[in-house]
Amino acid sequence: MENYTMEGRTYRYYGQEAPLYPFGYGLSYTTFRYRDLVLSPPGLPLCANLSVSVVLENTGQRDGEEVVQLYLRWEQSSVPVPRWQLVAFRRVAVPAGQETKLSFQVVAEQRAVWTRHWHLEPGTFTLFAGGQQPAQQTRVPSEVLSTRFTVTGAARPLHSC
Questions:
Q1: CA-to-CA distance for 70 and 6, rounded, in angstroms?
Q2: CA separation for the pair 125, 143 (Å, rounded)
């Protein structure tokens, strides 16, 4: 085997073709609403971690569980990267009519790209939070919130952070 690229071999690199059963696929007996996606800080130094919070509300008549998923997208990268990358997820039980605020950390290592070694690059990123992958078509509506943030500084190897 001479071509070790993952393009066309795993759902992360399929291009425009959606996977048959994406991560988090399933049905629920209730409905959820996402709101108040907050990033801290919105402008991020190259080696810093990103704090994320989002509010999840059970808007249905029954108690339910939701798999809250965070995805990251590079707006521009020096090398090919996935359309979006899963960076965090958590299964949360929310009683009917209640809400909960969730907090996550997206560490600098999750923004690293491979070019003979792992390194971090400055630029603009989009973070998605919701009950499914971004742009996923489902029978049951599920929101996906998104917001952008900027990473500043000069590109450097990950191990130097």
A1: 22
A2: 19
pLDDT digits (tens, 9 = 90+) for 14-33: 556 665 666 656 667 898 99
The dotted CATH code for 32-160 is 2.60.40.10
Do residues 57 and 99 make contact, with C-beta atoms less than 8 angstroms apart?
yes
pLDDT digits (tens, 9 = 90+) for 110-138: 999 988 899 999 999 999 999 887 876 65
State residue 159 phi and psi, 5-degree precision: -65, -15
- Cβ-based burial of 81 (10 A; exposed 0-12, middle 13-18, buried ≥19): middle
Edge to edge, the sheet with strand 156-157 lists 113-114, 118-120, 156-157
- Mean pLDDT in the chain? 86
Residue 133 CA to residue 79 CA, distance in Å, equals: 22
